[in-house]
Write a structure and sequence with these properties.
CATH topology of the largest domain: Rossmann fold
Structural class: alpha/beta
Helix content: 25-40%
Shape: globular
CATH superfamily of the largest domain: NAD(P)-binding Rossmann-like Domain
Number of helices: 10
Distance between the termini: 46 Å
Length: 324
C-alpha cells in the first residue's frame, strides 16, 4: 500500500487532501498543531506536533513516504497577513517548518515532496491595476512581494528547488490562488474573503448592511478546494517541478463577490465599504503554464463553489447561534 504524509492536515486544504488520498487507497499520516476544527480527520494516523521542533519532525518523518504534502504554514486572510503585526511570526514559523521538513525528507531519501507556495509572492508592481494584473509564473522576478508572507514563500520556493538541484529530490512547487470552500476557517480573524463575506451575509438580517474592506473594487480569483486538491496531486505526480499557478482565471471584484453571496442568500442586504487591509489591487491566476505542462486547469465556476460554501457557513453560523 502506498503511503502519504500530509503536513497541515488539521487545516482546510490539508483536511480535504487527506480525504482524497484515502479515496485513492493510500495509508495517510496527518500532522498539525491541532485537530481539524470542522471535520473528523480520515487519516490513518494523526499526530499533534509542532513542526518548528526538529525532534517532532524526526518523529513524524520516521520512514519513507511515497508522497509528502507540505501545507503547514503560519497564515491567514488579509486581516492577519497585511497588518504587519504578525510579520516576524509568519516568517520565522513558516521558514523554520520548511527547513526542518525538507532536511528530514532528504535524510530519509524521500523524493516527492509537494510545497504549497502562494500568489502572494508575485511582485506588487504587477498587481496595481485591478483589471489587468500580471501573475504569469515568469513575472516573479525582479521580486517585490506585497507582504512578508510573500517573501517567505519566495524564499521557500527557492529552498525546495535547490534541494532538487543539489540532492536529486523531486519536489514540486505550486502557487495557490485564494483557495476556498466548505470546512474552512470562517471566523476568528484568519478567514479569507469568501468565507468572511459568507459569514457576514449569513449573520445579517434582511434589510441590513455588511461591511467590506477597501473600496471593493480590488479584484481576485478564487479556487474551490476540490479543484485545488486535484491540481496538487496531479502536479506532485508529474515530471514538472514548477513553480506553477493553481488557481482560477475567473476574476471578480470584492464588491461583486459580496453581491454574489447576497444573491445566493436570497436576502436584500446593502454593502458599506470601510477602510481596512486589502492587499494588492488586482490578482488573477494565469493558467497558460499549467495547461501546457499538465494538460489540465480548473473548470468549476466561482458561483458553483460559492453556493456550496455559503450553504455550509450559513448552517454553521446557525448552529453556533442556536448553541448560545
Amino acid at each position: 500500500m502506498k503511503s502519504a504524509l500530509v503536513l497541515g492536515a488539521g487545516g482546510f486544504i490539508g483536511g480535504h487532501l487527506v480525504k482524497r488520498l484515502k479515496r485513492e487507497g493510500f495509508w495517510v499520516r496527518g500532522v498539525d498543531l491541532k485537530f481539524h476544527e470542522h471535520a473528523e480527520t480520515e487519516a490513518d494516523d494523526f499526530m499533534i506536533g509542532d513542526l518548528r521542533e526538529q525532534e517532532v519532525v524526526r518523529r513524524v518523518i520516521d520512514r519513507r513516504f511515497d508522497e509528502v504534502y507540505q501545507l503547514a504554514a503560519d497564515m491567514g486572510g488579509a486581516g492577519y497577513v497585511f497588518t504587519g503585526e504578525n510579520d516576524a511570526d509568519i516568517m520565522h514559523n513558516s521558514a523554520t517548518i520548511n527547513l526542518n521538513v525538507l532536511d528530514a525528507c532528504h535524510k530519509r531519501n524521500i523524493k516527492r515532496v509537494f510545497y504549497s507556495s502562494s500568489a502572494c509572492m508575485y511582485p506588487e508592481h504587477n498587481q496595481l491595476d485591478p483589471d489587468n494584473p500580471n501573475c504569469a509564473e515568469d513575472s516573479a522576478y525582479p521580486a517585490n512581494p506585497d507582504s512578508e508572507y510573500g517573501w517567505e514563500k519566495l524564499f521557500s520556493e527557492r529552498l525546495y528547488l535547490a534541494y532538487n538541484r543539489n540532492y536529486g529530490m523531486e519536489c514540486r512547487v505550486a502557487r495557490y490562488h485564494n483557495i476556498f470552500g466548505v470546512e474552512g476557517t470562517w471566523d476568528g480573524g484568519k478567514e479569507k474573503a469568501p468565507a468572511a463575506l459568507c459569514r457576514k451575509v449569513a449573520m445579517t438580517p434582511e434589510g441590513g448592511t455588511i461591511e467590506v474592506w477597501g473600496d471593493g473594487l480590488q479584484t481576485r480569483s478564487f479556487l474551490y478546494v476540490d479543484e485545488c486538491v486535484e491540481g496538487t496531486t496531479r502536479l506532485l505526480r508529474s515530471e514538472f517541478e514548477g513553480p506553477v499557478n493553481i488557481g482560477s482565471e475567473e476574476m471578480i471584484s470584492i464588491n461583486d463577490l459580496a453581491r454574489m453571496v447576497i444573491d445566493l442568500s436570497g436576502k436584500s442586504i446593502d454593502i458599506h465599504n470601510i477602510p481596512g487591509p486589502e492587499g494588492v489591487r488586482g490578482r488573477n491566476s494565469d493558467n497558460r503554464l499549467i495547461r501546457e505542462k499538465l494538460g489540465w486547469e480548473p473548470t468549476e465556476t466561482l458561483r458553483a463553489g460559492m453556493e456550496k460554501t455559503y450553504a455550509w457557513i450559513a448552517n454553521e453560523a446557525q448552529r453556533r447561534h442556536n448553541l448560545h
